[in-house]
Design goal:
heterodimer, A: alpha/beta, four-stranded mixed sheet, three-stranded mixed sheet, B: alpha/beta, Rossmann fold, six-stranded mixed sheet, 12 helices, 40% helix, coiled coil (chain B), UPF0229 (chain B), UPF0229 protein QC825_04915 (chain B)
């Protein structure tokens, strides 16, 4: 590749990057991003090798992490696909932290470096800073310090208690980590210094709390007496009536374990807490994939085009970019061998592009469907959409008939009581709303994951723990419920039961240890 | 606002610990895969790592999730001909779907999904010799045979035309010519000067006789000058080659195994590791290694590796048959002057009683003095029999070259090699 072609400004056009060119383009991107009011954390852009990138991938991009075999498994599979040449773009490696850490691989061409900077350092970064879920659930300024604390704490535990013991505990916690979040309550922010400082006193305090729960003979609270107990003539004083703890069902299983598991040692509670905090950190990411990727993709696309329009990059670079961009936002159809679900990059990019179109060039259909935003200032609408939604509500709110048509979306109803499957709705006038409804539900965490809560802990009796699964649309639990219950049993230390309720009916009871097969 | 950090010099392999933890955790699975692989591979083919697959279900990290069934609605892209209300039979394979947008379900049809990854060669060998702690394979000073290799050692006057050193020969010739011509030239020069002096005189004063004499002398000297040969057999020089002894870099390894009915496949698998270990050791020390497989029951036969390890035989055992064949093969194909000879023998210790003495005799008289090393393993948990006792006598006679060991399980193999692999001591 020659570096002759002199577009205005005479910037170099070589495929190879240097630190000077990176800085030059970073500043250009920053200027453009500012025009679009992208508010970002300061960027810490790290140049790394592909080996280091594999390491980073394996640890979910975390710059430091505690040791666990599952990350090794992750590493091996990344390594395997990288060796086979299957690994795609290094887009994703940006960390929701303040400063925002993003990785550039040294092997990338200049185009890729510019693209990744636009995508990660300005796209994702501004999303992290702006979106309400991230603002509420994560503390970007504290995460790296917290990770350092967690890693140190866990290696200390390994030294004190043995690697295997800690590993088993982590296994058990990881199995429950999706149930380590208070979904409806904003958590207190993570603060590493306080975390570290308070940690020891918390250990002691926690233990007294737990002891109190398990040693104090509970006083009866008539509110919790069940109807049956009141009418039981054998036990008119309701002495044997179940004392109900917790008073309210608890959705945060790990939190409940941390605070109430009878037998855990203080350090074990702390480890449970660490896993819980990590789960909380990733909680927003699991719910904003489409939005986050769509947002970042939209901005890298816009920024790259503007760089080209301003003559800062030449035709060769923009063509190279378009080729890469096109493959990123490709959406194979459901019957394609490459189909792997809806591509969040494709859907997100299409939706954001469409929002802009609706704002700038609304059709009659748009005016009917989106009276609020049709014809409005697109940038205002953009920032509003980015800041206040998650995938579920974003789809519900902004998926337009045009995007549904473009994707040729259709909804299949697969009911196990029906021996055939049925097309429930397609991308037409009658179907738009139902397709959108179904797609939104598909992104709803509450529907993707079984709704399981702590129902009661038998503090007076056999100390068993009972969970309740609220069945949604008759969808059963996977067989993996048994190994998870086994882990839960390890944490709780006493029998664990799980009842599946469909409405008021118990449809299935699980328990661990398994009842004797007699 | 933004800053760049060049981290390329930082340590990589941050995941090494996690990788090791993973390997540790799935030791059992990996060991099984490695064992399969060892049995599949030839013992000369241990240089590469191995791709290991573990069934996904054994390695999964369970979480609560929805199973198949229930009432699901799935939105997909790419509708071509469907219309609302169309009904189809449920496609087999993918069931209710988990309804997640990630579509993690594989549509490769049935079959267990596997988690696949690669072991490096070191990791692979570590699993092969699990618990053996492969020693730092450095050769003890062995009684290597020496073979001679001609090396150039200067120039000599004798030799064959093919080794003639032209440059040196020409230089000799030139020197000789100078040496031989110098006195003639000097005499010639004197004669010519004398002649010139004589001719410079007044004609009346010239001594005719003297002139004649001088002219004749000059002619003669010129003839002598021309007669000096340009090159002479005396000048010829040849590159000299002398024979220098060098350690041989060729080795042959004889694998001798009892395949009588009493040797089970488990015995053979242990034996294979034993052979493999010796092979790995030899591989570090020799450029060229040949393998000879001799198996025996009542009669011995030279076979290929596949047949050696995996064909089944029954019948009694006569060990000396193998030793005789071994001797014969050495005699005909591997002259000890050129090859380093190693023998590894594996057996369960059974032998015809009166044959064991014969074995000792063959070893002591014919074989041992030609070998670098003889390693014998007896794979049996039972008491020793006559063969062991006889071999112990051989070991006493050849303490440097004969090692024997009883093996009950694979982990015992190593001690056989402890001596062999011991770091070379000073001197």
């Amino acid at each position: 590749m020659t570096d002759t072609a002199s577009v205005s400004g005479g910037e170099r056009k070589s495929a190879d990057w240097t630190f000077e060119t990176l800085e030059y383009y970073e500043q250009a991107i920053a200027r453009i991003a500012k025009e679009y009011r992208l508010d970002i954390y300061p960027n810490q852009i790290e140049i790394i090798t592909s080996e280091q990138m594999m390491d980073a991938y394996a640890s979910v991009g975390m710059p430091v992490g505690y040791h666990h075999w599952s990350f090794g498994k992750q590493f091996l599979s990344v390594e395997q696909s990288y060796r086979r040449g299957k690994m795609g773009l290094a887009y994703e490696l940006v960390i929701n932290s303040d400063p925002c850490i993003a990785y550039l691989m040294e092997e990338n061409t200049l185009m890729m470096q510019i693209l990744v900077m636009a995508h990660a350092c300005y796209g994702h970064n501004s999303f992290f800073k702006g979106n309400y879920l991230f603002r509420a659930w994560t503390d970007a300024s504290a995460i790296v310090d917290y990770l350092v604390f967690a890693r140190r704490y866990i290696s200390e535990c390994e030294e004190k208690h043995g690697v295997e013991t800690v590993e088993q505990l982590l296994d058990a916690c990881h199995a429950l980590q999706n149930y380590g979040v208070d979904r409806y309550k904003r958590p207190s922010p993570m603060s590493p210094e306080a975390e570290s400082k308070r940690q020891e006193e918390r250990e002691a305090y926690l233990q007294t709390q737990v002891n109190a729960l398990w040693t104090t003979i509970p006083t009866h609270d008539t509110e919790h007496l069940s109807d049956r107990a009141v009418t039981d003539s054998e036990d008119p004083l309701a002495l044997r009536a179940p004392f109900h703890y917790p008073p309210e069902p608890q959705e945060n299983l790990l939190y409940f374990i941390e605070k109430n598991a009878p037998l855990l040692a203080p350090w074990q509670r702390e480890v449970v807490r660490i896993v819980r905090k990590m789960a909380q950190y990733f909680y927003p990411q699991r719910q904003t994939q489409v939005m986050n990727e769509g947002w970042a993709t939209f901005w890298h696309y816009t920024i790259m085009n503007q760089l080209f329009d301003e003559g800062l990059i030449d035709e060769g670079v923009i063509l190279e970019f378009l080729q890469s961009h096109t493959s990123v936002v490709a959406q194979p159809t459901f019957d394609s061998p490459y189909y792997n679900g809806i591509n969040p990059y494709a859907l997100g990019f299409a939706m954001f592009s469409d929002i802009k179109r609706i704002c700038e060039h609304p059709t009659d259909e748009d005016r009917e469907w989106f009276p609020d935003i049709a014809g409005s200032n697109w940038l205002d609408t953009f920032h509003f959409a980015m800041a206040n939604f998650k995938d579920e509500s974003f789809v519900q709110q902004f998926l337009s008939p045009k995007v549904m048509r473009d994707f040729k979306m259709f909804a299949i109803i697969d009911d196990d009581q029906d021996d055939m499957i049925e097309v429930g709705a397609i991308h037409n006038e009658q179907g738009y709303r139902r397709v959108r409804e179904a797609l939104s539900a598909q992104y709803a965490l509450g529907q993707r994951e079984p709704n399981i809560q702590v129902w009661s802990a038998d503090v007076r009796g056999d100390r068993s723990l009972t969970l309740r699964h609220l069945v949604h649309k008759r969808r059963p639990l996977d067989q993996s419920v048994y190994p998870v219950l086994r882990y839960l049993h390890q944490l709780w230390g006493f029998p664990v039961k799980l009842d599946s309720f469909d409405g008021d009916d118990v449809v299935h009871r699980y328990q661990w240890p398994l009842p004797d097969a007699s | 606002m933004s800053y760049f950090i060049d981290r390329r010099e930082n340590a990589k392999h941050k995941s090494a610990v996690n990788r090791q933890r993973f390997l540790q955790r799935y030791r059992k699975h990996i060991k099984r895969a490695v064992e399969d692989s060892v049995n599949r591979r030839s013992i000369t083919d241990m240089k590469r790592g191995e791709k290991i697959s573990i069934p996904d279900r054994d390695i999964s990290e369970p979480v609560f999730r929805h199973g198949r069934g229930g009432d699901n609605t799935i939105v997909s892209p790419g509708n071509k001909e469907f219309n609302e209300g169309d009904r189809f039979n449920r496609p087999s394979g993918k069931g209710g779907g988990d309804g997640s947008g990630e579509g993690s379900a594989s549509n490769q049809g049935e079959g267990v999904d596997e988690f696949a990854f690669s072991l490096t060669r070191e990791e692979f060998l570590e699993f092969v010799f699990d618990g053996l702690e492969l020693p730092n394979l450095e050769r003890k000073q062995l009684l290597d045979i020496e073979e001679v290799k001609p090396v150039r050692s200067g120039i000599s006057r004798d030799g064959i035309p093919a080794r003639m050193n032209v440059v040196r020969s020409m230089r000799e010739a030139y020197a000789r010519r100078i040496a031989m011509r110098a006195p003639i030239r000097r005499a010639l020069k004197e004669a010519e000067e004398a002649l010139a002096e004589e001719e410079g005189k007044e004609p009346a004063l010239r001594n005719k006789l003297r002139l004649e004499e001088l002219r004749a002398e000059i002619d003669q000297l010129k003839r002598r000058l021309e007669a000096v040969p340009y090159i002479d057999t005396f000048d010829l020089r040849y590159n000299n080659m002398t024979n220098q002894p060098v350690p041989s870099n060729k080795a042959v390894m004889f694998c001798v195994m009892d395949v009588s009915g009493s040797m089970t496949q488990a015995h053979k698998d242990i034996a294979k590791r034993f052979f493999l270990l010796l092979y790995l050791f030899l591989e570090r020390n020799y450029e060229k290694i040949e393998l000879v497989f001799i198996r025996h029951h009542t009669a011995a036969k030279e076979v290929d590796e596949e047949e050696f390890f995996y064909s089944r035989e029954t019948g009694g055992t006569i060990v000396s048959s193998a030793l005789n064949l071994l001797d014969e093969v050495i005699e005909t194909r591997y002259p000890p002057g050129q090859w380093n000879l190693y023998v590894a023998q594996a057996s369960d210790g059974d032998n015809w009683d009166d044959d064991s003495t014969t074995c000792r005799q063959i070893l002591s008289d014919k074989i041992m003095h030609r070998l670098q090393y003889y390693a014998y393993v007896e794979i049996t948990p039972h008491a020793h029999q006559a063969l062991w006792d006889e071999y112990e006598r051989v070991a006493a006679d050849f303490p440097d070259r004969f090692a024997m060991q009883q093996i009950v399980e694979a982990g015992d193999i190593y001690s056989v090699f402890r001596e062999l692999f011991r770091r070379r001591e000073a001197a």
